[in-house]
Amino acid sequence: MASYDDRDGLIWLDGQMVPWRGANVHILSHAMHYASAVFEGERAYGGKIFLSRDHSERLHFSANTLGMTIPYTVDEIEAAKAQVLAANGFTDAYVRAIAWRGVGEDMGVSSRRNPVRLAIAAWAWGSYYGDAKFKGAKLDVARWKRPSPETAPSHAKAAGLYMICTMSKHEAEAKGCSDAMMFDYRGYIAEATGANIFFVKDGEVHTPLADCFLSGLTRRTVMGILKDRQIKVHERHILPSELEGFQQCWLTGTAAEVTPVGQIGDTNFEVGALTRQVAEDYERLVRA
């Protein structure tokens, strides 16, 4: 696969469609130095972005949380995403919208005089975890923890929050794992580096309470699927010592979709009937 800076196609940048290779920013962009950026990861199925407007609204929420005002309305972002898909001839694709503080008069921590910019790109992207989506992902246990909401804006999809995720995923891959499970600042199970996590015990589902990390749109969708199937969901704090008592496990995320987990550290899980059923239900829903 070609490098992400060397592809054919068009990217929407500040209101204009520009050639893929020309969608560049200055090295002194504030976001490059101080992580002043927010983003969304979305998937289009059959030409329609699943929960598209929810993603656009969350992008605004994240930006506002960081004190940034995106100079485009939700409706304008929706139109731009549709334009990107059409211009590149995509029906099934991953869509990335990102807003960031660019170059301006400020180049210190403060950047109030710098413009907020927006770009939207799309590309073909298969299974995020490769064949692990079918046979179960293997997860490491990360040494980095999700921060307290008093330390970082944990409910915003902010670029800076992913630094420890990248570090954790790199360490996991070096051990032959697909990803890493992270604890929160109190030591409870939180999530994977880019996906939420669910467990099954005796036919009921348990998922960490999202009080210090992002409650993903896919997470909420899957909880709705479980409710429709009248499967009890316990949204609560989960201790690491509980892992060995769960029979099944899966991850959820726009990129991950619904991916079964076969192992976390030394604990093994079956890729069971409920996990497969939820994955099938989700696949039908996004393509409905």
How is the secondary structure organized here?
Elements: E1 10-13, E2 16-19, H1 30-34, E3 37-45, E4 48-49, H2 52-65, H3 74-88, E5 93-101, E6 116-123, H4 132-135, E7 137-146, H5 163-174, E8 179-184, E9 189-192, E10 196-201, E11 204-208, H6 217-228, E12 233-236, E13 248-253, E14 257-264, E15 267-268, H7 273-286
Parallel strand pairs: 7-8, 7-14, 11-12
Antiparallel strand pairs: 1-2, 1-6, 3-4, 3-5, 5-6, 8-9, 10-11, 10-13, 13-14, 14-15
Helix pairs in contact: 2-3
Describe the structure.
The protein is an alpha+beta fold and 288 residues long. It is built from seven helices and 15 strands. β14 and β15 form a beta hairpin. The longest helix is centred in the first third of the chain and has 15 residues. It is globular.
